[in-house]
């Protein structure tokens, strides 16, 4: 994904995000938070990386991993991923004590 994404890869990613949207129905993929949710969150990373609170990227890397058109088309899927991160992922630099309080 370093540089331009080939059209075939973009179409594959677009299709995967569309199927993810259809599968979500507003909640976790399998009813409870699972590896399926984590795996699809990784797919979303190819469209719009998560906030620096979770994974710090340089501005150049953030631009490289951003597909603006797909991000706009699949804003709801990206929002699902962001909410999942907010609920299940510690912020970078958080101590173990902070994680236990969450």
Keywords:
102 residues, mainly alpha, flat, disordered C terminus, 0% strand
Describe this structure in words.
The protein is mainly α and 102 residues long. It is built from six helices and no strands. It has helices spanning 7-24, 35-45, 59-64, 68-73, 75-88, 96-101. Mean pLDDT is 84; it is low at 96-102.
What is the fold's blueprint, element by element?
Elements: H1 7-24, H2 35-45, H3 59-64, H4 68-73, H5 75-88, H6 96-101
Mean pLDDT: 84
Shape descriptor reads flat
Number of strands: 0
Low-pLDDT runs of 5+ residues are 96-102
Count of DSSP helices?
6
- The end-to-end span amounts to 34 Å
Largest sheet properties: none
Percent of residues in helices comes to 55-70%
* Rg (C-alpha, Å): 14 Å
Beta-strand content estimate: under 5%
Structural category: mainly alpha
Q: What order do the SSEs take from the amino end to the carboxyl end, as H and E? A: HHHHHH
